[in-house]
Amino acid sequence: MGMALHELPLALFTTIAPIGAGAFVALFIAFLKGNFTAAKLKAVDKYTILPIFVALVGMACSVPHLTNANNAVNVLNTIGSSPLANEMTAFGVFLVLACLYWIIGVAGGLKNHGFRLVCSGIVAVAALVFAVFVGFAYALPTQPVWNTLWTPAQIVGIELFGGMVMGMIVLISANADACVEDGADNALAAVAIVGFVLACLATCVIWYLGSVAVSPVLDVAANAGSLVVFLVLFIIFGIIGVVCAFFTAKIGSLSLLGWASLVVIIVACFFARLVFYGMQIGIGF
Where do runs of H (alpha helix) occur along the chain? Predict the structure, then answer.
């Protein structure tokens, strides 16, 4: 458990930033299947700043991990060869594209539906790429428990789970949630459920791999046992989050429900990330 708590800044970053990014996947689905008026789209574009702000909050949470400015410079100097540098680069690309999308939208440049779909689709893809790169930043050969596809799968699951609700909050804030009632709401709810299932499977598998790992120094069984509480809390809060996400997508109109759903999901996914970091059982441990 000590290793999990030691990585609190990164646990917060890898929880909050992907959820903010995932909102753009939700918005793309909404634009693809929803039916919006020009006035509603204008309002949606205005509130698209919300997930960008959430992603930036997630980024800010990682600042304590960078002990000095030289670390940031080292990240920039190792793009392409360092998983961490690639992760931060992917986040930077996503953030630039998201901000450009928001600026163009607020300026009225997304009135053409086809152009809007292309632009929102590009940002959605960038968000998914960012989540994958976050996962692969930890899939290290020296960490056998982490060095599997379940590591990026957990981040992608978190992004889809929380991102759908973050996207719905944008729509609710813009009073445009009724525009996704003809099928898009079902799609958003379904993607949120798929995201939770993926994150749940990945977290459980990672915990199991950590519980049966071999270490000459670490008491693996005791370490895994200490993390059971985080695993159980993730599942409990995750199930509550799924129910809240479903009603947020189906009912809409209730801003309080949307924000409450997001808080529950962030808490759930934070526990999942603590389980992940607690399973830091390297070859030398």
Answer: 2-6, 8-33, 38-47, 49-61, 69-77, 83-106, 113-136, 150-173, 184-211, 220-226, 228-251, 255-278
| CA 235 from centroid of its chain's CA atoms | 17
* 37: nearest Cα among 114, 115, 111, 119: 111
Residue 68's pLDDT is 47
Residue 247: helix, strand or coil by DSSP? helix
- Contact in structure between 192 and 239 (CB atoms under 8 Å): no
- 168 class by beta-carbon count within 10 Å (0-12 exposed, 13-18 middle, 19+ buried): buried
- Ranges of the chain whose pLDDT falls below 70: 1-7, 64-83, 214-221, 252-255, 281-285
Token readout for 3 is 């290793």
pTM (two decimals)? 0.90
Are residues 173 and 259 in contact, defined by beta-carbon separation less than 8 angstroms? no
Contact 19, 163 (CB under 8 A): yes
Residues 6+ apart with CB under 8 A from 220: 210, 211, 212, 213, 214, 281
Q: Round the CA-based radius of gyration of the chain to a whole number and report it.
A: 19
